Amino acid sequence: MRHASSVRVPTPNGSRYLQQLCKHWAHNLTVEYTPEAGSVVFPHNARGADWPGDATLTLQARPDALDCRLDTSSAEHLAALKGALERHLDRFAFREVPLSYPWQDEPV
């Protein structure tokens, strides 16, 4: 069973944060990105985890926001990756903190 959620994070620096996130995670995850769009695959067993399946983060930079979508293997996996994304993004966007994360979970 898949679980998904999307968020539009208001920021004028969406492209910058997209690239910073992707460069950061490219050190140990499968990442593809341009200044406008990116994707990150979180393996089911990353950092000792044992999720039912892999997860994917899809990013899209807008002039006034960064769109993020998580597709995961369980509700717990989704919650964990939401937190990880928010912590990393807040770290990169320290001048703008607190950012807003109005997540929209999709029906299962």
Describe it.
This is DUF2218 domain-containing protein. Keywords: Plasmid. It comes from Azospirillum argentinense. The chain is an alpha+beta fold and 108 residues long. It has a single domain (3-106), classed as TATA-Binding Protein, CATH 3.30.310. Helices cover 28% and strands 33% of the residues. The mean pLDDT is 95.
**Radius of gyration computed on alpha carbons:** 13 Å
Write down the oligomeric state.
single chain
What is the residue-averaged pLDDT?
Answer: 95
Strand order of the largest sheet: 2-3-4-5-1-6
- Under CATH at level 1, the class stands as Alpha Beta
CATH architecture call: 2-Layer Sandwich
Number of strands: 6
CATH superfamily: Alpha-D-phosphohexomutase, C-terminal domain
Strand content range:
25-35%
State the end-to-end distance. Answer: 8 Å
Question: Largest beta sheet, briefly?
Answer: 6 strands, antiparallel
State the helicity in percent bands.
25-40%
The third-level CATH topology is TATA-Binding Protein
Shape: globular
Provide a concise account of the structure shown:
This protein is of the alpha+beta class. The protein contains two helices and six strands, in the order βαββββαβ.
Task: Describe this protein with a few key phrases.
6-stranded antiparallel beta sheet, TATA-Binding Protein, 6 strands, alpha+beta, 108 residues, 2 helices, 28% helix
Indicate the topology.
Elements: E1 3-10, H1 14-25, E2 30-33, E3 37-42, E4 55-62, E5 65-72, H2 75-92, E6 104-105
Antiparallel strand pairs: 1-5, 1-6, 2-3, 3-4, 4-5
